[in-house]
Design goal:
Number of helices: 3
Radius of gyration: 28 Å
Structural class: mainly alpha
Largest sheet: none
Helix content: 40-55%
Distance between the termini: 89 Å
Order of helices and strands: HHH
Amino acid sequence: MAKAIGTDPFVDAKATITQTTITGPRKRKRKLPHRMTYYLPKELCEEIKGIAQELEVPVSDVAHYALRDFATRYSEGEIQLEPKVWVTRKKLV
């Protein structure tokens, strides 16, 4: 019989399968605790994407700057908010 040249390629595959079975699936990275999601109108999203493309920066950087600017101006009193309550649907009781 002829001797095999080199190592058996299936030996490593078996070890990997066994190792995966023992250790379980890979853990995902934890989500950042300061991550938030907002529902914005489509037009505003497109406008923000356009600004990001024009400046060649990530969309999140544009949103971060805009929200930081708003928060700073609001805390300095440059922006006044007047909340309004709108009835969107009337229910019969």
